[in-house]
Write a structure and sequence with these properties.
binds 2-aminohexanedioic acid, alpha/beta, 518 residues, five-stranded parallel β-sheet, seven-stranded mixed β-sheet
C-alpha cells in the first residue's frame, strides 16, 4: 500500500496541499514508501477549528451515555482492526510488532475505561449553609480541544486525549505528527466510523510552524478552548506561552530524563531486565525511556557487567521479527540522535555494542537481525561514569542511549534522580519498603515504579510530569476529566426569600466557658 493521505475536515479529505506533499518511508526499508501526505497550512487548521466550533454544542447536547456508546464502538472497531493498525504502525515508524500491538491495545483499554464514564461523569450535590437551598456541581465540556501529538506513540497517546475529550462533549481538532500520517489517517478513519458526528472530529496534517501559526489564529478568533500537546519541552514552552496569552492552561506532556535507581539490596537481574526494556524498547524513543541508571557503588560493577551483556546480546533489527528494537522513527530522529552521541566525553566509558552511532555495513552490529543497510538503525549505547554536570545527564536524548551514574548515600541517589529538572517517570529497585517510601517522597517525578521499569504506564493511572516534563496536568483515568471539563457550581434557593450567604446563616450556641472538673 502506498496511500495518499490528507487532512480530514468534516470527514472529507482536503485535496490541496498548501503545506507541500511529503513521502513517508518505512524506516526499516527506506526504499519502501508507506504514504504520501498532503500537508495543510495555518488556514487549514483554522478551518478545522471553525467546523469543530460550530458542531460542538450539538455534540455536547447528546446525552453522555450515548457519547459513551460511540466510545464503546470506537474501542470495538480498533479491536477488530488491531492487527492491521499494528502492522501499519510498524511499517511507518519501525516499532517492533509486539510493541505496536501493545500500543493499539492501549487505545482499546482507553476506550474501555471511558465508555463507562459516559454513565458517570459525576457531579456532586452539596449541602447549603441555609435551609431550603441546595448546591450542585456539574462537569461542563470545555468546547473545542486542539490536540497536537508526537509520532512515537501515534495512536495510544492521541487516544489519551481524543477519547476523554469526545466523551466529555468536546469537539476535537487533532494534529498528529507529520511523520506518521498513514497511521493517523487509519486511526482517524476508525474514529469517523464510530458514530461521532462528522464535524465533531477533525484531523489536520501540517508541519509544526504552520500548526503554531494556525493555533495562534484560532485562539485569537475564539475557536479553540483547550490545547493538548505531547512533545518536546522546547515546543511545550512555546505552546504554554501562547495559551497563557489567551488565559488558557494547556495540557502539556513533555520530555523526560527518567532515573532508575538500583539499591544495593536490589534483585540485579530484575533491574537489568527493567533497564534493558525501558532504556532500549522503542529504540529509547519514549518520553518514559530510561535516561540514567543510578547505581549504588557496591553493586555498580556487577550491574554494569550484566547490563552490558544483556544489551550486547539483545537482538536488534527488522521490527517484524522478534527484536528488542527496530529502526529510529525517521531520518529526523536518527540525525538528532547522532548529534546527542556527541555529548559523550573522555571520562565516560562506553559499552553495549560493537560500535556507536548508525549501524551500517562499515559499522556493523554483532547479531543484527536483517539488513542494516536498508534502514535507519542505531547501535545501543551504555555510557558509564555519568556525572551531574555532564550534558548527557542534563539532556533528554531520545534514542538508544542510557547513562550510568554511581552513588554512595541515599540522598545522593535522590539528588541525581531529580537534578536534571525533568520529572516524568522514575523507578527504584530495592527490597526495602523504607527505601521505596523515601524514594516516593523525595523524587520529583509524576510517576514512580517500584521494581519495575520507567516505561509501560497502564492506561488508567494518572500520566504526566512536573518541572521540565510538563505543567502538572495529568492524562488518563478519572484524572484527565479535569482537563476536558470545567466545574460549574449551581445553587438553588427554594425558600422564596433572599437568603444571604454568610450573613443570614444560622449559628449554634456553645458554652465555650465549660471546663471538666479537676
Ligand atoms: C510516551 O512516550 O509519550 O508508559 C508515552 C509508556 C507508554 C506510553 C509512553 N505506555 O511507556
Amino acid at each position: 500500500m502506498n496511500a495518499t493521505v490528507s487532512s480530514l475536515i468534516s470527514g472529507l479529505p482536503v485535496e490541496d496541499a498548501p503545506g507541500g506533499t511529503i513521502a513517508i518511508s518505512n524506516p526499516a526499508r527506506l526504499d519502501e514508501v508507506v504514504a504520501q501526505a498532503r500537508l495543510g497550512d495555518a488556514s487549514t487548521f483554522v478551518e478545522a477549528c471553525g467546523s469543530a466550533k460550530a458542531a460542538q454544542p450539538a455534540w455536547a447536547a447528546v446525552p453522555a451515555p450515548v457519547r459513551g456508546r460511540a466510545i464503546q464502538q470506537l474501542g470495538r472497531l480498533v479491536e477488530e482492526n488491531l492487527p492491521a493498525l499494528a502492522r501499519l504502525l510498524t511499517r511507518e515508524i519501525g516499532k517492533p510488532l509486539a510493541e505496536s500491538r501493545g500500543e493499539v491495545q492501549e487505545v482499546v483499554d482507553t476506550c474501555d475505561f471511558f465508555l463507562g464514564e459516559g454513565r458517570r461523569l459525576y457531579g456532586q450535590t452539596v449541602p447549603s449553609e441555609m435551609p431550603d437551598k441546595q448546591l450542585f456541581t456539574f462537569r461542563v465540556p470545555v468546547g473545542v480541544a486542539a490536540i497536537i501529538t508526537a509520532g512515537n506513540f501515534p495512536v495510544a497517546v492521541p487516544s489519551w486525549y481524543l477519547v476523554p475529550a469526545l466523551l466529555c462533549g468536546n469537539a476535537v481538532v487533532w494534529k498528529p505528527a507529520e511523520y506518521t500520517p498513514a497511521t493517523a489517517n487509519a486511526f482517524a478513519e476508525l474514529i469517523l466510523h464510530a458514530g461521532f458526528g462528522r464535524d465533531v472530529f477533525q484531523m489536520v496534517l501540517a508541519g509544526g510552524d504552520a500548526t503554531f501559526e494556525g493555533l495562534d489564529l484560532a485562539l485569537d478568533r475564539g475557536l479553540v478552548d483547550k490545547v493538548g500537546f505531547t512533545g518536546s519541552t522546547a515546543v511545550g514552552e512555546r505552546i504554554g506561552a501562547l495559551c497563557g496569552r489567551y488565559l488558557q492552561s494547556p495540557c502539556l506532556e513533555l520530555g523526560g530524563k527518567n532515573p532508575l535507581v538500583v539499591m544495593p539490596d536490589a534483585d540485579l537481574d530484575l533491574a537489568v531486565e527493567g533497564a534493558l526494556f525501558s532504556g532500549f524498547g522503542t529504540a529509547g524513543q519514549r518520553c518514559t525511556s530510561l535516561g540514567t541508571a543510578i547505581v549504588h557503588r557496591d553493586v555498580h560493577d556487577a550491574f554494569l557487567e550484566r547490563f552490558t551483556k544483556a544489551v550486547g546480546d539483545a537482538p536488534i533489527g527488522d521490527p517484524t521479527e522478534d527484536v528488542l528494537y527496530g529502526p529510529m522513527i525517521s531520518a529526523r530522529f536518527c540525525d538528532r540522535f547522532e548529534g546527542w552521541l556527541e555529548l559523550i566525553r573522555d571520562h565516560h566509558v562506553v559499552s553495549g555494542s560493537t560500535g556507536v552511532g548508525r549501524i551500517t555495513t562499515e559499522n556493523p552490529r554483532h547479531g543484527f537481525v536483517g539488513d542494516s543497510a536498508k534502514g535507519l538503525f542505531c547501535h545501543p549505547t551504555i555510557v558509564d561514569g555519568v556525572r551531574p554536570d555532564d550534558d548527557l545527564y542534563l539532556t533528554e536524548t531520545f534514542g538508544p542511549i542510557v547513562g550510568v551514574a554511581t552513588f554512595d548515600t541515599f540522598d545522593e541517589a535522590i539528588a541525581l534522580a531529580n537534578g536534571h529538572g525533568y520529572g516524568l517517570s522514575s523507578s527504584i529497585y530495592t527490597r526495602d519498603p523504607l527505601h521505596v517510601f523515601r524514594f516516593r517522597e523525595g523524587v520529583s517525578a509524576g510517576m514512580v515504579s517500584v521494581n519495575n521499569s520507567t516505561s509501560g504506564a497502564e492506561a488508567h493511572l494518572p500520566f504526566g510530569g512536573n518541572g521540565r516534563s510538563g505543567n502538572g496536568s495529568r492524562l488518563s483515568g478519572i484524572w484527565v476529566l479535569d482537563q476536558f471539563t470545567r466545574w460549574q457550581a449551581m445553587n438553588w434557593d427554594y425558600s422564596g426569600r433572599l437568603q444571604k450567604a454568610q450573613m443570614d446563616t444560622a449559628d449554634v450556641q456553645a458554652d465555650m466557658g465549660f471546663r471538666l472538673d479537676g
